[in-house]
Amino acid sequence: MERSGPTLALINGTVYPFAAPGKASGVFSRDGVLEVVGDDRDVLERCDARTVVLDLRGRYVFPGFQDTHLHLLEYGRSLVSPDLRDVTSIEGMVQRGRDALARSAGARELWHFGRGWDQNRLAEERFPSRQDLDRISDTRPILYERVCGHVGVLNSPALERLGVRGDLHVHGGVVDLDDRGEPTGVVREGALNWVQAHLPPPEEEQLREWLRLGAEGLARGGVSTVQTDDFSLVGDLERLTDFYFEEDAAGRLPLRVDLQLLLSGHRDLEALSRILARAKAHQGRLCRLGPVKLVLDGTLGARTAALREDYADGPGRGLLAFETRELVDLVGRIEAAGCQVACHAIGDAALEQALEAFETTGAGTRCGHPPRILHCQVGDEELYDRMVRLGVAADVQPAFVASDWPMILDRLGADRARTGYAWKSLLDRGVVLAGESDAPAETPGPLEGIRAAVTRKDLAGQPDYGWMPQQRLEVPEAFWLYTGGAAHVCGQGRRRGTLEPGKAADLVVLMEDPFRVEGEEIGAIPVGLTICGGVLRHLV
Q1: pLDDT, position 411
Q2: The predicted structure's pLDDT at residue 147
Q3: Which helix (H) or strand (E) holds 194?
Q4: Fewer CB within 10 Å: C terminus or N terminus of the chain?
C-alpha cells in the first residue's frame, strides 16, 4: 500500500547527498521521508497537484545539520539575557547588567541571569565577585555564569536567598572563600550545580518561549536535529522529559530533539527507570531519548578540567566529579539499562577515567551504540589508540579551537598542547567524530564550526597559519561531523545523516557552494532553507 501524507519536491538544485550515487539535482519526500534523490524528471514524476514544489535555481542541498551536544533551553534563555562574551572589564560587565535590569523593569522574574564572562578576557584578569555584582543590584538576586557554564558568580542577595555560606560543602564542587572565610560569590562545578538545583523552577510558559527562541536560532543556521541537556535549567529529569514529550505530542517541536539525560549520581537511576517507561509510551514524531550523560570534569578556561599533571601556568590538576570505582559502577548500571553513555571529559585524567569505565563495563555492547566522549580536548597518542580499540566515539567542538587557542599553550605546556584538540589525528585513526557547539557556551552554527575545523583560526584570522595546522580537516570531513558522523555517533545512521530514499527528509539549502569558496568564508555562507521532516522550518 502506498504511503499518504504531505509531499515536497526540490528541483533545479545541486544536491550533495553524501551517499551513492553522488550529486543529484532534486529530491522528493512524502510524509517526512525521502522517496527520490535524483534528477528533476524523476522528482517531478512523483508530484501531484498538492505537492509543494520549490525551484532552487542552482542552490546547494545537503543533509540537515545536526548538533550533538548543546543546551537548547539555556540557549533560548541566553537570547533574552545579558550576553557577556564580549565584555572586556568588570566595569563593562556591571554596566551591561545595569542596562539589562533597566530594560526589564517591572518584569515578573525575580532572578536576573547572564552568561558569557571569561576572566581571561577581562582587564582585571580575575573572576568577578559578589561585591561586583552588588553594584548591579543589591536587592535582586543575580547569577552570572562563565562562558563555559561550569563556574558562576552570585551577588549578596543571591547568596543570602540560597543560604550559601562558608561552611557549605558540595561533592565535586567548590565555593570560593575570601580571607575571612566568607563566600566570594564564585561557585565552581558541583557547587554551581547545587545553586542551579535550588533556583525557583521556570514556568511552562517560560520554557516554551526559550524553546521557540532557541529552535528558531538553530533553524537559521541549518540545524534540523539536536541532542540537548537542559537539566541544569529545569532541575528535574522527569519534568524535563515530560515537557519535551508534551511539546512533541502537541506538534510544537520545530526540530528533532534527542534528550541527553544528565545523571549526577546513583540517586538519579530511579528517575531514569521511570523516564525509560515513559519513553516507551511516547507517540510523538520528533522527540526521543538520547544518551545518559555524565559530567566527569570541568573546563580548561575555568581551570577545572581534570589533568593527569599540574596545569602549566599554576598548581592544581582540576576536579574529577567521580571516584573511578563509583564511575565504573554507574556506567555499568547505565549499560544494564540498555542506554548509551556519553561522558563530558575535557582533561586527560577525565578521558582516562572514562575509558577505564567503558572497558571495565563493556559499554555499548547492550545498546548497540558507541560510548561517547563529549569535547575530548586533552589526550595523547596512547589514549586515542585506546579509544579506537574500545570503539569509543567523540563529539568534538571545532569552535573551541577558535576560542581557546590563545590560552592553550599557557594552560597545558608544549607537550600536551601538541596532542590536544586533535580532531584530524582522531579521524585518521578511525575514531568516529560528531560536531557539537555546546551552545550557549559557543554560538551555535555548524557552518562556523566547519570553518573553524578547516582553518583552525578565530574570526580575526588568527593565528596566521591556524592553531596546530596539521590538525585541520578537509571540507568534506568537516561537513561529515555535522551530518553522517553525527548520525552514526547518535545511533541514528539508518534514519538520518545522508540523503537517501527511506531516510528522514531533513535538509539544508545553502546559497553558495562551500566546496568552491575559501575556508575562511564558509562560516558566512547564508542558509536559504532548513527542512525538518519534510516541513519548512526556515526560509530566507
Answers
A1: 95
A2: 87
A3: helix 190-197
A4: N
pLDDT tens sequence across 56-87: 999 999 999 999 999 999 999 999 888 898 89
Element (DSSP H or E) covering residue 413? helix 398-419
- Which residue is associated with the grid cell 578521558? 351
Residue with cell 600536551: 416
Q: Residues 300-315: pLDDT tens digits?
A: 988 899 999 999 999 9
pLDDT mean over 356-366: 95
Assigned C-alpha cell, 25: 539535482
Give 327-380 as a 3 state SS string.
HHHHHHHHHHCCCCEEEEECCHHHHHHHHHHHHHHCCCCCCCCCCEEEECCCCC
Average pLDDT of 196-209?
91
Three-state SS annotation for 21-42: CCCECEEEEECCEEEEEECHHH
Residue 288's Cβ-side half-sphere holds a number of Cα atoms within 13 Å equal to 11
Could you list the beta-strand ranges (E) of 39-125: 52-55, 60-63, 65-70, 112-117
The reported pTM is 0.91
What pLDDT, on a 0 to 100 scale, did the predictor assign at position 160?
93
Q: For residue 11, what are the contacts with CB-CB under 8 A and spacing of at least 6? A: 25, 26, 40, 43, 44, 53, 54, 55, 56
Looking at the DSSP bridge assignments, the partners of residue 66 are 225
Residue 386 has pLDDT above 80, yes or no: yes
Question: In this model, does residue 248 exceed pLDDT 90?
Answer: yes
Characterize the bridge pairing of strands 52-55 and 7-11: parallel
Q: How far is CA 61 from CA 6, 226, 517, in A?
A: 20, 19, 16
Phi and psi torsions of 317, nearest 5°: -125, 15
Q: At what angle do helices 324-336 and 348-361 cross, to 10 degrees?
A: 50
| Of 419, 426, 486, residue with least CA distance to 450 | 486
Torsion 425-427-429-432 (CA) sign: positive
- Domains of the chain and any CATH numbers: 7-63+503-539 (2.30.40.10), 111-197 (3.10.310.70), 204-489 (3.20.20.140)
Residue 33 C-alpha cell reads as: 521521508
CA–CA separation, 376 and 386 (whole Å): 13
**Grid-cell match 555564569, residue found:** 145
Dist. CA 408–CA 346, nearest whole Å: 13
pLDDT band at 2 (very low <50, low <70, confident <90, very high): low
pLDDT tens column, 469-494: 999 999 999 999 999 999 999 999 99
